Amino acid sequence: MTAARTVAVVFRREFTGYFASPVAYVFLIVFLALAGAMTFFFGSFFQRNQADLDSFFVFHPWVYLFLMPAIAMRLWAEERKTGTVELLFTLPIATWHAVMGKFLAAWLFAGIALALTFPIWITVATLGAPDHGPILAGYIGSFLMAGGYLAIGSCLSATTKNQVIAFVLAAIVCFVFSMAGAEVVLGPIRELLPAGSVELVSSFSFLNHFAEMRKGVIDLRNLLYFLSVIGVFLFATVLVLDLKKGA
Description:
globular
């Protein structure tokens, strides 16, 4: 069996599992409710009197900070707790096949949740004449950012059998990546370390890279950043699982 077919088998198994319980539907409802409320109420959409979706995208990092670890926490922690991870690795598949298949299933599920917010875009287009370029770029950036959070969550889920611990660890690490570009973090660094250190720390910030994309700037550096985060943490997931398997 080729690598692509193996990944596809794991992907189908994992993706269909999301909809085998009401948890997936609860997640979708919560996400859509939060998206609508934060756009039109907390985001002061009508008070701003601007036909754009900036009030929609500005909350995404903070919503994902909790919802993406909630998706990712079950990827490996549940498998390890129930012992099915041992059964999975008795099959003739490489570890990275399983990691990639499970991650892609989680990422697609997150993508479906994001795609279901499309009526918000239609509503804004009906109320005014928005610039659709920044909105499309915002959706692309949001999808990539969700993948980054999920990759981090996948790695930390592989380190424990407890889903709650996996959720907390993932939320903390995702928070660190989000806040890396905030002034509350950069201020002390600016005072204590050379100027280059500030730029280095800031370059790891999800907020900074996503902020550029939601303004309509699809820079290759931003795309490479999110894809690199995904690649690094998926590679780390493979290493963790291989260590667990060999222990």
